[in-house]
Design brief:
mainly beta; single chain; 5-stranded mixed beta sheet; 9-stranded mixed beta sheet; 224 residues
């Protein structure tokens, strides 16, 4: 039975609210396209390990709600993420055992301000209120292969992009294992596993729908 993560977030006590972790630069296409740039200053090299940041609680949002443009901003990037929901406290797990810690998957639409720099964490661009839209969880057994989930993105009722979720540099199991060596995940925590290259842009008034086939969808209106 599906359980609304948005409902969970509002009902859990403050001490037990899930933390949302986000993986950046996990797209093989993005890394290939930007390889020359990343080999120059200030980066000096492609990232050798997963790049992670944490979203503040205020960014959490739900399907059907409004996503607001910050004052003076005209567009938002639409960044679909396959979210991994931990079913148990997880620390120092091997790659072989990593998926045993997963309870399910959740469709996520993460919004951000357009910014092509990856050198410093883009706090202004990614940590605005309501930018992380969480859908409903599905049991892990409902997803045969998380690396082969089809994603359809629609703007104002018309599908603008369809693709297989992500050609990931690091698999879900690899991400969990690597990060669990220094992060103690709690049951209910969510790990966003990366988004695709060249995301679509949405403007004020746009109706955005992101559908993860076999998992579910999230829809939102962009407002000033």
């Amino acid at each position: 039975m599906s359980v609304s993560l948005a409902k969970q977030i509002t009902q859990l006590s403050a001490a037990n609210k899930p933390t949302v972790f986000v993986i950046a630069l996990n797209s093989q296409r993005l890394l290939q396209r930007c390889q020359t740039e990343f080999e120059q200053a200030p980066y000096k090299a492609l990232p050798k390990t997963p790049v992670i940041y944490v979203l503040p609680e205020a960014t959490h949002n739900r399907s059907g709600a409004t996503v607001c443009l910050p004052e003076g901003k005209k567009q938002l990037r639409i960044e679909p993420h396959l979210g991994v929901v931990f079913g148990q406290d997880t620390s120092r797990v091997s790659v072989e055992n990593a998926l045993y810690t997963v309870a399910g998957y959740v469709p996520v639409a993460l919004y951000s301000l357009p910014n092509d720099s990856y050198y410093r964490p883009d706090i202004e661009g990614r940590c605005q209120d309501g930018f992380c839209v969480l859908g409903q969880t599905v049991m892990k057994s409902a997803v045969a292969n998380p690396a082969e989930v089809m994603v359809n993105i629609a703007l104002n009722g018309a599908i603008k992009k369809s693709y297989v979720h992500l050609d990931m540099k690091h698999s879900v199991a690899e991400l969990i294992s690597f990060l669990s060596q220094f992060i103690a995940f709690k049951a209910g925590d969510i790990l966003l596993t990366g988004t695709e290259d060249m995301p679509l842009l949405a403007s004020a008034g746009d109706e955005v729908s992101v559908d993860f086939v076999q998992i579910g969808s999230v829809s939102n209106t962009i407002a000033e």
